[in-house]
Amino acid sequence: MCLSFPGKVVGVKGEYATVDYGEDGVRDNVNVSLVDAHIGSYVLIQGGFAIKVMSKDEAEEVLDTWKLLRELQEA
Question: Contact 74/30 with Cβ under 8 angstroms?
Fold first, then answer.
């Protein structure tokens, strides 16, 4: 099973972008050569590649769902 996570592009250098995954402060460098991403874009990331540009609402909905699942797991 493969998991994809949304994140916000906070920096771009060539074919790579720094992506912020949200409230945990986790950032990663991912390849954005497959999509038209720029600073402020939300992208869906799988295996180190951005595979889709998402709306802010879409990304926040997925991040909120992951947050809820983590909270339920910790309870």
Answer: no
